[in-house]
Amino acid sequence: MAKAAAVKSQVFVWEGTDKRGVRLKGESRGENIGKVKAELRRLGVTPLKVKKKPLEIFSSRRRIRPKDIAFFTRQLATMMNAGVPLVQSFDIIARGLENPTFQELILSIKNDIEGGTSLTESLRKHPLYFDDLYCNLVQAGEQSGALETLLDRIATYKEKTESLKGKIKKALFYPAAVLVVAGLVTSILLLFVIPTFESLFKGFGADLPAFTRGVIDFSQFFREYWWAIFGVIILAAWGFVQAKKRSRKFAHFLDRMSLKIPVVGDILRKSALARYARTLSTTFAAGVPLVEALNSVAGSTGNIIYENAVYRIREDVATGQQLQLAMRMTNLWPNMDIQMVAIGEESGSLDDMLAKVAEFYEEEVDNAVDALSSLLEPLIIVILGVLIGGMVVAMYLPIFKLAAVI
């Protein structure tokens, strides 16, 4: 069943010692200090100091991005396929990194491996960058003796996932950026330009058009209470983000409503379907049992509606039901997906069928993002024209009126 409450995970910094007494330090994500300590002990680390990571507003340390992890995985897979030993591969990769934070992470993992720790356990010490799905796939590769093959699959999975995320961000960033710029330009007009026209109109000694009067009144209100307006906007944005993080019900409501937004909802739905198919294909091909694989897949969909549905599918599959029937009962997967899964189950090529489904939806998302960009461009021009052009027209109406009288 889906988790009843949202996991309020935080980032903690820790120091400890391994089984050989070697001092270690790192970062981990968890609900509280106790959970982090328990996870460290499970990994064979004796925690000495665990504290919540302070908020870094200005930091000289460069952040390690998911794209960096994807690139590292591809490099490691390529070197191991070329026959380069694991420790030497880590050393070569670390030397070529420009990000000192990432270089420190790679060298830490390399030192653990040199000390006799398996690659899986070394990666598990850094859950902030290598999640359970990543570590489980690496473990499957180590146990089967096909680590280079699994690393290649993981690299492909990470690259496809990050590419999909990039497309979604592209679809949402462009209109958001334009609207922010429009808001700034409008604010400048209201604060500095319109007051100049207002002082000019006072010398006319005539009644202003209603439209012009309304714009001037709004400008006066904005100049007087701009701090309150921006304060409310910032507070509302902060409250929105916090509510989404802390309330699973609110996040569930947002995800459900986002799927109903025209065009954007279709992109988000296809993105969730692509992530589901890609993740399940990768884990199943690695030899991870289907029920366990579904547990990892749930959190990768990027949408609570589909996450809850995957948990229900997992429960049904655990009781012996076929995957295609469990998917059909959720009423969230298109008939094409279900038929492809059915063919995969019958032919024993479920991972291949799911990979084809993932490729289909990834291409669909790419096309939908391009179509959305084409649709938004004229719409944004119209919005900017009405907003900024309207204020310009309002300021020139009295001048046109005066010219007509003369």
TrEMBL record:
Chain segments annotated as coiled-coil in the UniProt record: none
Membrane topology label: Multi-pass membrane protein
Subcellular location: Cell inner membrane
GO BP, sorted A to Z: protein secretion by the type II secretion system
InterPro entries: GspF/PilC (IPR003004), T2SS_GspF/T4SS_PilC_CS (IPR001992), T2SS_GspF_dom (IPR018076), T2SS_GspF_sf (IPR042094)
Start and end residues of each Type II secretion system protein GspF domain: 72-195, 277-398
UniProtKB keywords: Cell inner membrane, Cell membrane, Membrane, Transmembrane, Transmembrane helix, Transport
TM segment ranges: 172-194, 225-241, 379-399
Gene Ontology CC terms: plasma membrane
Family statement: Belongs to the GSP F family.
Name of the protein in question: Type II secretion system protein F (GspF)
Organism of this sequence: Thioalbus denitrificans
Taxonomic lineage from the root: Bacteria, Pseudomonadati, Pseudomonadota, Gammaproteobacteria, Chromatiales
